[in-house]
Fold each of these.
Amino acid sequence: MDEDAFSTLTWLVEAGAGDAIGETPVNRLVSPPPAPTPMARPAAPPPRSAATAPAPPPDSDAIGSAQSAAASANDLAELKAALESYDGCALKRTATTTVFADGTPSCGILFIGEAPGRDEDRVGKPFVGRAGQLLDKMLLSIGLDRASNAYITNVINWRPPDNRDPSPEEAAQCLPFLRRHIELANPELIVLLGAVAARHVVGTSEGIMKSRGRWLEYRVGDRMVPLMPTLHPAYLLRQPAHKKLAWRDLQAIRARMETIGLPRIPMQANT
Ligand code: URA
C-alpha cells in the first residue's frame, strides 16, 4: 500500500470508520451508472400487513444446539472448541475471531463483560482495548492481574457489528456457553461488568446504577457464589466522575476476596 493510501486509511480508522462495508472498493469520484427507469423495474411486492408477515424464524434450534454443545464440554479447552464450531449465532459471520477468555481460569475470581469490540475481535481476547487497559488498572488496584489471579470473559463471544448492543436472541445463543464456562471455571467470586452482563447473567431489570455495588448470589453446582455487578470500564471512560463509585465496589470486592482467602499479588504503593 502506498504512503498516501496508508495515511488515508489511518485517518479513517481514527475517525471511527473501523469496518469495511463491502468486499470490493467503490470509486465514489466517478459517476455511478444510470439507475433503471421506473418502467424497467420489477413491480414491488405489495406491502405485508403485520398480521400476515411471517414470524421471525424460531431460534430454539440455535439455542438448543448451544445448550447441548456447551453441556458436552468437560473442560475449558473443550468448551472453547465447542464454541468455535458453533454456527448458531449470526454474529459469528461478521466477526473475525471467537473471543473466549483471558487470564488464569483457576484463580477463583471471574469478571464478565459484555461483548468484544474492534480490538478484541482483532486480537481474539477480551478487554484488550482502552476499556481493557482501564480494567487492568482497576484489577491491579485490588491486587489482581490476568497473568496471576484474574479470569475474564464476556456474555457475547463475537463482536456485534458497529459495537451495537447484542440482541436478546444473540445473548440467548451465547448464554449456554457462558453458564457452562462459569461451571467449569468454578469461581469463588463473580464480578459483572456493566448493565448488559447484569441483565443477562442475573436478570437484573433495574439499571446498573441501582444494582451496582450490591452483593447477589449465583448458583454454581451446589454452591452459592457471591456476585457483584459494577460499572463497565468503557462507561467509566465516558463518565470519569463515576470512577469513585467503581472504586467503592472494588474495595468491597477486595474485602470479600480477603474473607474468602483469595490471594492477591504483592502490591506497590496502592495497597
Ligand atoms: N467491552 C467488553 O464488555 N468486553 C470486551 O472484551 C471489551 C470491551
Amino acid sequence: MRLFVTKYPHYHIVNLDALTYAGNLENLRDIDQLPNYSFCKADILDTAAIDAIFTEHQPDAVIHLAAESHVDRSILSPLDFVYTNVIGTVNLLNAAKKHWAGHFEGKRFHHVSTDEVFGALGNTGLFTETTSYDPHSPYSASKASSDHFVRAYHDTYGLPITITNCSNNYGPNHFPEKLIPLFINNIINRKPLPVYGDGLYTRDWLYVIDHAVAIDTVLHDGKTGATYAVGGFNEWTNIDLVKLLCRLMDEKLGRATCESEQQITYVKDRPGHDRRYAIDATKINTELGWKPSVTFEEGLSITIDWYLQNTAWLQNVTSGAYTEYYKKVYG
Ligand code: TYD
C-alpha cells in the first residue's frame, strides 16, 4: 500500500480491508492523510459492499491481497479460509467482471498467491510457474482453489488477470503469528522459541518491500493471463534462521552471546508440515527485470530494529485475542 500510494501520486488508491485480527490502521498512519489514498472497511464476502465500492471508485485495477494466511489458524478453522480465500476471491472476480463489463482494455486483476499451492519439495528442485499444484494444508488448498478461479475467469470470460506465487515474506508491521515476528516478540520477552518438529524444514525468505515491488512490476509489465513465481533465492532451515535471529537480537539488545538461543524449545510438529519450499524466480527476473534488493541480513536487521522501536505496537497486537490463540496453538 505504502509503495503504491507514495510512488504513484497520480493514481487514486482505495484500501479495502475487513480489519480482522491482523488488520491494523496504525500500520498506515504515515500515508492515510495523502490525497490519493482512501480507506473502505469492508469484507470481500459482502457482495453489496464490494459492488458499492466498484460503483463509487470505478477502479482500473484490483490488487487482491485479502486473505486468511496463517497455516496454523487454517488447521484450527478451515472454513474461515474457504469463505475468505475462495468465496471472497470469486466475489471480487464477479465484481470486476460486472463493472468492467467486457471493456477490458487497460484493466487488470492481479491476484497475490503463495508458493504453498505447489506442496512440498524434497532436498532438491525448485518451484516454477509450471509446477503442478499439490496443496497439503487447508490454507494452501484454499489459495490453490482461488488461483484456479482466477485463471478460470481469464479463460472463460477473458478477464485480464495476472498471478504471483510468492515465497515466505518478512518485514515490519507483520502480525506476530508467523515464524519471524513471533520469534522476535518472544526473544524480546524472553519467552520460549517453539521450533516445530526437528527444525529442519526449509523456507525461502523474501523482504516484504521486494514482494511489493514484484507486484508493482507484474501489475504494470506482466503479460495478461500470466503467472510469475517470486522468491528470495534465500533458503534457510528454520533452526539456522532462528539461530541467526537470536545472534542478531542478542547483539542489538546487548545480551550475552547465545543468550536467546537458550530459549529454543523443540515442540510437537505441525500436522501436514511441508518439508521444503523454494522458488525459481528466473521468469520474473529475465522477463521483467525484477530481483530482490536487500540481502537477508540487511532485511532482518531492518525488521528487528522496527520491532525494537515499536514495542507499544507489539504489546497492542499481542494483548486480548492473541493470548487465546497462543494458548490454542502452543498449549
Ligand atoms: P510460518 O511463518 O507459519 O510460514 P509457513 O508455514 O507459511 O511457511 O512458518 C515458517 C516455518 O516455521 C514453517 O516451517 C513452520 C515453522 N514454525 C515453527 O517452527 N514454529 C512456529 O511457532 C511457527 C509459527 C512456525
Amino acid sequence: MADLFHRPRRLRRTETMRALVRETRLAPEDFILPLFACAGEKVRREIPSMPGVHNLSVDEIAREAAAAAELGVKGIMLFGLPEAKDEAGSGAYHERGIVQQAVRAIRDSAPGLVIVTDTCLCEYTSHGHCGVVRDGEVLNDPSLELLARTAVSQAEAGADVVAPSAMMDGQVGAIREALDDAGFDQVAILAYAVKYASGFYGPFREAADSAPAFGDRRAYQMDAANTREAMREAELDYAEGADMLMVKPATCFLDILKTLREEFDLPIAAYHVSGEYAMIKAAAQNGWIDEERVMMETLTSIKRAGADIILTYYARDAIKLLRAG
Ligand code: PBG
C-alpha cells in the first residue's frame, strides 16, 4: 500500500464540507438576460430552436423585464426585430425604433433594471450584415457613423449601457465620442471586444432574423483560432474607452476569457450564446443530460474562468435554482 498521507477526498465527504471549500460561487447578481423585442401587441412568439425564449412585443417585453427584475435579474440585453429592413439599417437608429420603444417601456415597468442595448445593424439591414455594404463588401468607416447614431438614439431612449457588437474597427471610440458630444457621458460601453465568427450564433439568427443574405461575417468577426489577436482587440477597445470587455461565445473560449481577466482591470463579461443554450436544451429534451446540472456546471465554468458578468438565456433559471439553495 502506498503511503497516502495526502487525501484530497477528506474535503469532499459531505455537501456541507464541499460547500465550505468551494472556490467559485455563482450569484444572482452575475447575470444579464437577453430579450428580443418585436412589433405588434400581445406577441409572445417562442423561438423554435431556443425553447423558453420568445420574441416579445413592447407591452410583453415590459412585463417580462419587470418579472425578471422581481426575480432578481439585475440587467437585460435588448435586441430588436424591426418591422421593415433596409440597406442602411435605419430601424436601428430611428427615434421610434423597436429597441428604443422597448427601452422606454422597460424604464417605466422596471425602473431599477440595468438596460443594455445591443448596438449593431445586422437585425435592421436588408442584407443582414453588421455594417454598410458596397459591392459585396462591408465597409468599416461608413458603418461607424451609423453605429454611433444607433448608440446615441439608444441612450436618448434611456439605455444605461450600449454594447457595440458589429466588430468594426474603431467602433468603441466612435460611439464614445458621439455619446459624449450628445451629453451622454454617463452611458457606459460594454464592448463585444472579442467576438468570434462562430457557428454558435445559429439560433440567434433565427430569433433575430439576421442571417447574412450573402457570404458570412468572417471579414469582421474573429477567427476562432486566434488568441493574440483577441488581446489586441481588447487592448484597442480598452484604449478607445470601453467600460467593460466581453468575450463571445463563452464555453469554447474560456482560455481567452481567463487571459483577458488576467490582463485587464475592467469588468469582464462572457456571452453564453444561443447555440450554447440550444445544445443543452436539445440534449435535455431528449433525456440525454440533466439540464439543471449541465446548466450550472456550464455557468460555473464561465465564472471560474474569470467572468464578472454572464449574459445567458438561462439567467432566470439559474437565479431560481440559486435561490432555492
Ligand atoms: C449582432 C449579434 C449577434 C449575437 C449578438 N449580437 C449575432 C451575430 O453576430 O451574428 C449573437 C447572440 C447569440 O447567438 O446568442 N451582431
